[in-house]
């Protein structure tokens, strides 16, 4: 079946793209559009052309199956130039989304009609590249440089209403899109083509000062990224250069981005997030359980945040607390969260009340008896968790899914205190639970396939990235966090200042350094965890200096002092000489001669520790794919997406080099904490990568 067809309706030709599921710009579509323009240009009976699409959307972008492969002619820049050069008016009929190359096709048309529900966008920056078929040159001409920069740098979907206000869309209709587009084409026959590329930009308001201000405004959100600056340079070219020269500059900067390692890393993350829901043994035929009502045990910060995810998508929630005061406080925090969104214009007052109507508070477990899914979010101790699940086993209906929000604890042990271990799994939300995208779905030994399948689907329904993990201490994310934190703390005791460790990892791309993160989370949390572990089970010299801080009442940001000090009402960490005095005392006690540690050495040790632990998790089967680990670390721990996650970062270095470095660390620091992961050794010696492992073990 041809992906592009043409039908003549009177003197109007309707060119239709039909390339399910999203009408991607595969080679056949590009060639079909090019051929249609040539044929229709020569057909004197045709006075105007409409480009429309079958299915649920207009052209939604490039064909991801062609990523990384040599592109076949015709190339998209040539196709859009060909459309724009048509002597007969060309109208784009837009429904669904016109994204990336799809919007570039629409911009090359002379007129654009869209459904009011349609959206447009240029999301290429999210893949580490920039619009390479004239998007950075035509959008500023029709929408203005400021609006174009907003769209290109954010990569966001722009509503049809907003796009029309920019001048990108000529007409909006509620329905009968094709009829409206044909009517527009008939009217355009008397006006002729109106080429976007021929619009002149008044550059008087868009000089160097404007672009300097814009760069400053995006500096924080684009820190470390390569593509955004090249996007800005492209829009500068649109302001200063004729179209032909601007298109040439766009192609030069496009290739700079495409050849930068960040584009490979960001595209890796794009595919990795789409892979996480592919679970061995689970497919579309696996039964799912209906989730029409959810119970949450614990109305604290975590429980309330978890509950909001379900209310946001219209699933009623029963929130359980042991005391009325705690329940009222929890529901009050939920309301404040929604009211804060309303104050920002994201919700109306009516919507706030509608969302709050989804919540029912209770002090009785019996009120959870009609819930299809019950999630406990209580204190992180096994004794308390077991009491909760014993009670849930009594009250929950047959077929209800019972989930623990535990961060570290053994879900198999929790499941064993019920008579229905097949209905039990972990759903580890990340704080703040109503904001963070990551959800670790912990598959216990006896978790039923339909329970797992239901929760994988549910993660998508509540707009989370759900990654399945096996049972082990800390699962994927927190298990890897331990060696990362260990090496950061060791760097302090060996000679670095806390702020130097933080600066090294912040400059690597982390949103904050590990010392600042520890203060924000509460330094006492790790302290209490270590108290329960026994000194033989952790690297004492890494943490004794931290434990002394906690014992002096320095518990972190919440009390105004931890590893750093904080002025009242100010979250900015300030180095404290009193902390360094403790660090130096501990170093002397251990016989450590403190030495300056280069930033690159701090980063290397922390990253190698992450990678090695990730390889152990993968080799033990606690993660299905290396890319799943990357998704966890990018979405849950702020690992810079432009590095592709720790496992992709290891591949970019080369596993032979990574393995050699870890072996060297084992020689220098001792093998206890630096025993190379067996899988890492195996892959390195075979000259393979984690990506090879994923491909060979794809499920």
Task: Please tell me about this protein's structure.
The protein is of the alpha/beta class and 699 residues long. It folds into 4 domains: 4-259, 2-enoyl-CoA Hydratase, Chain A, domain 1, CATH 3.90.226.10; 294-472, 3-Layer(aba) Sandwich (Rossmann fold); 478-598, N-(1-d-carboxylethyl)-l-norvaline Dehydrogenase, domain 2; 600-696, N-(1-d-carboxylethyl)-l-norvaline Dehydrogenase, domain 2, CATH 1.10.1040. Helix content is 50%, strand content 11%. 48% of the residues are buried. The mean pLDDT is 95.
Our measurement of the CA-to-CA distance between the termini, rounded to an integer number of angstroms, reads 31 Å
CATH topology of the largest domain: 2-enoyl-CoA Hydratase, Chain A, domain 1
Tally of strands: 17
Structural class estimated from helices and strands:
alpha/beta
**Biggest sheet details:** 8 strands, mixed
The tally of domains stands at 4
Low-confidence stretches: none
Q: Tell me the strand percentage band.
A: 5-15%
CATH homologous superfamily assignment of the largest domain: 2-enoyl-CoA Hydratase, Chain A, domain 1
CATH class of the largest domain: Alpha Beta
Q: In the CATH hierarchy, what is the architecture of the largest domain at level 2?
A: Alpha-Beta Complex
Fraction of helical residues: 40-55%
Q: What general form does the structure show? A: globular
Q: Largest beta sheet: what is the strand line-up?
A: 12-11-10-13-14-15-16-17
Number of helices: 29
């Amino acid at each position: 079946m041809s992906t592009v067809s043409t039908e003549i309706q009177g003197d109007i030709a309707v060119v239709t793209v039909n390339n399910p599921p999203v009408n991607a710009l595969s080679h056949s579509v590009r060639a079909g559009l090019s051929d249609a323009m040539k044929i229709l240009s020569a057909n004197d009976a045709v006075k105007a052309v409409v480009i429309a699409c079958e299915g649920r959307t207009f052209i939604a972008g490039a064909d991801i199956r062609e990523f990384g492969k040599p592109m076949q002619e015709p190339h998209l820049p040539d196709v859009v130039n060909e459309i724009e050069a048509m002597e007969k008016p060309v109208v784009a009929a837009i429904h669904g989304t016109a994204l990336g190359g799809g919007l570039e096709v629409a911009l090359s048309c002379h007129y654009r009609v869209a459904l009011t529900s349609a959206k447009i966008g240029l999301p290429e920056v999210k893949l580490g590249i920039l619009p390479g078929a004239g998007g950075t040159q035509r959008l500023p001409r029709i929408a203005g440089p400021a609006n174009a920069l907003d769209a290109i740098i954010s990569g966001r979907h722009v509503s049809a209403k907003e796009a029309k206000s920019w001048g990108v869309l000529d007409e909006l209709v509620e329905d009968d899109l094709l009829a409206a587009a044909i009517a527009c084409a008939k009217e355009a026959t008397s006006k002729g083509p109106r080429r976007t590329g021929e619009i002149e930009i008044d550059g008087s308001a868009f000089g160097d000062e404007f672009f300097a201000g814009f760069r400053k405004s995006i500096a924080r959100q684009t820190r470390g990224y390569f593509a955004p600056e090249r996007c800005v340079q492209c829009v500068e070219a649109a302001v200063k250069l004729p179209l032909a020269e601007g298109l040439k500059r766009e192609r030069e900067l496009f290739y700079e981005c495409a050849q930068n390692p960040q584009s490979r890393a960001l595209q890796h993350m794009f595919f990795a997030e789409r892979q996480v829901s592919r679970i061995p043994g689970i497919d579309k035929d696996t039964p799912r359980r209906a989730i029409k009502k959810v119970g949450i045990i614990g109305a604290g910060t975590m429980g309330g945040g978890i509950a909001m995810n379900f209310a946001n998508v219209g699933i009623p929630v029963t929130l359980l607390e042991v005391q009325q005061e705690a329940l009222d406080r929890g529901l009050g925090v939920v309301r404040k969260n929604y009211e804060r969104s309303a104050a920002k214009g994201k919700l109306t007052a009516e919507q706030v009340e509608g969302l709050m109507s989804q919540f029912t508070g209770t002090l009785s477990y019996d009120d959870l008896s009609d819930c299809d899914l019950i999630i406990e979010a209580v204190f992180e101790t096994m004794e308390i968790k077991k009491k909760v699940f014993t009670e849930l086993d009594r009250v929950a209906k047959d077929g209800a899914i019972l989930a623990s929000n535990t961060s570290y604890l053994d879900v198999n042990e929790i499941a064993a205190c019920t008579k229905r271990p097949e209905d039990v799994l972990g759903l580890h939300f990340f704080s703040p639970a109503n904001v963070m995208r990551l959800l670790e779905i912990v598959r216990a030994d006896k978790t039923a396939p339909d329970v797992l399948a239901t929760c994988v689907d549910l993660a998508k329904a509540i707009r989370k990235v759900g990654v399945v993990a096996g049972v082990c201490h800390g699962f994927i994310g927190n298990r890897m966090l331990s060696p990362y934190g260990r090496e950061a703390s060791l760097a302090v005791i060996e000679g670095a200042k806390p702020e130097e460790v933080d600066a090294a990892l912040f400059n690597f791309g982390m949103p904050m350094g590990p010392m600042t993160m520890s203060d924000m989370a509460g330094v006492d949390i790790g302290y209490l965890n270590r108290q329960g572990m026994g000194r033989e089970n952790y690297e004492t010299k890494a943490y004794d200096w931290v434990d002394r801080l906690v014992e002096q009442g320095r518990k972190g940001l919440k009390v105004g002092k931890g590893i750093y000090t904080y002025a009242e009402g100010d979250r900015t960490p300030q180095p404290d000489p009193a902390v360094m005095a403790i660090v130096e005392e501990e170093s002397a006690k251990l016989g450590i001669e403190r030495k300056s540690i280069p930033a690159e050495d701090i980063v290397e040790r922390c990253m190698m520790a992450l990678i090695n632990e990730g390889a152990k998790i993968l080799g033990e089967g606690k993660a299905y794919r290396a890319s799943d680990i990357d998704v966890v670390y990018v979405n849950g721990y702020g690992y810079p997406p432009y590095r592709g996650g720790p496992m992709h970062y290891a591949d970019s270095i080369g596993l032979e080099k990574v393995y050699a470095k870890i072996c060297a660390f084992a020689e220098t620091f001792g093998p206890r904490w630096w025993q190379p992961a067996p899988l890492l050794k195996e892959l390195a010696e075979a000259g393979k990568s984690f990506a090879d492992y994923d491909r060979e073990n794809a499920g």
